[in-house]
Amino acid sequence: SADLVYPYYQNTNVGSFTQELRLTTRVADRVDVLVGAFYINESIHQIGALTYGTQFRPYANLLIQGATGGALNVPTLEGTFGALEGNPAKYLGQFFVNGQGFHEDYSLRSEAASAFGQFDIDLTRGLTLTLGGNYTDDHKHFFTDVTSSDVFSNIDLDAPQYAPFRQQLLLGGGLQQAGVNPNNLAAVFAFATNPATAPIYAAIANYAATNANNPAANPLGPLRALQFLPPFQNVPNPVEPGRTHDSKFTYTIRLAYVLNQQFNIYGSYATGFKASSINLSRDSRPTMEDRLALIQQGLAVHNLTFGSRFAAPENARVIEGGIKANLGWLSANLAVFDESIKGFQSNIFNGVGFNLGNAGKESTRGVEFESVIKPVPNLVLNLGVTYLDPKYDSFVASSVGDLSGTKPAGIPAWPVLLGAEYDYPVGNGMIVPRVSYLYQSDTQLVEGLSAFLVLNPDGSIADSTAAAAAAKPFRREENDLSASLGWEMDNGFTIEVWGRNLLDDRNIETIFDSVAQPKGISGYPNDPRTYGVTARFKW
Predict the structure, then answer these.
(1) For 81-209, where are the E strands, in sequence order?
(2) Average pLDDT, stretch 85-110?
(3) Mapping DSSP to helix (H, G, I), strand (E, B) and coil, where does residue 177 land?
(4) 484 contact partners, CB below 8 Å, separation of at least 6
(5) Alpha carbon distance 105, 11 (integer Å)
(6) How far apart are alpha carbons 20 and 207 in whole angstroms?
(7) Torsion of CA 270, 275, 280, 281, to 10 degrees
């Protein structure tokens, strides 16, 4: 209920134009031909703001006290940083002030065209070979005009002028570990001059002096988690052009054979392609290589970390085989597939922005069965069952650490869907009861929570163990029973009484790092049991 962020808004305008042309024909009474072309032109303009409310400053003060064991607070930091920069009043009353924050302006222009064709060739009676191909050419240009007025997030905690402060904190921390109160000058003097403890004091003092400019030992390091809105490196710039250009030819090969009037079998091999995706969020950061180039050329903003401006293209390969049956009263499809995606595009919310990146390889093997049964007139039953076995074959540089060899979160091994519908003629219409049940087996919600990562000063991950452990307990199993009873009249009027989630199955749909609450976890629950009445009229 605290007034922490106000206002927070986002406004997105999207304009697009698409055109597709297709030509179909049959050649020599043996080949069905489809050729065509597709074009899309899209523009996105997104603006927004996130600014601190009237109570964020006292809230941040509590966070800083908690992060430093009560040793520091907002006024102390303001006065100390200012004094070490030669002006004690420079930052007084300037940290986490109402109205400071982030103002965002992103633009993206995208243009893509593709040419495609498919040829269904009747090789022999009942045997058809399908050959398909698609060539895509994709261009994207993106621009940012983002400013951060958050003064504290602009402070370089590793700055050389703060070395005396860091040395003092290291010395105080070492004394505390030795059982000496650093604020008790008499106790410190006795500890430093006692022949039995003087060597220990000398070692602590030496460590503090030699590590005052060591980013890895910086005692102010925990405060980096409270630099919520660091300065933004706008693009394009001399290092980052702000554009992508991707092109790819993909294809499909498929053989299908009609066994008889009821059954046919097929096998296929297909490739797929997805062009680069652009990160239009406050977490859009240069790559490690571009970050180093920006720093070397003196172009980098303060506290510049690395991440991704965009995710590179992903390339898919799918092998599938199956059988299809149609017995009149029963139709059923069974498919077995093996899919792999190189460069899988992953997008994870970290509490204040989105981490967009590429996995080395993600694969999924599975079996899918679906059927429709009509045992008696007017009654339709349907069943769908899928088994999925996904894996990150390689994902070393995920936003929550190395996920190679693990199972992607949010993908249940067993999704099952059951349904039934009956049409019962009544007067000038139909009474139609429907029921459906969706089951999704137990699955972990997310792979990790980035707020629990141990980071190096440049933003790279030093240890991801705690991030994985924090996410592990959060799982979901879905049991959703829904039903409705409708009266569908011949004149186009329909009235329906319905209920969703009749079992009142409660679970968390997703979790993420809480905004501006280090190591806090937030989540969205599913809808509870819900009832309603819907009326429609078609003419």
Answers:
(1) 101-124, 127-144, 147-148
(2) 96
(3) helix
(4) 433, 434, 496, 497, 498, 499
(5) 10
(6) 69
(7) 50
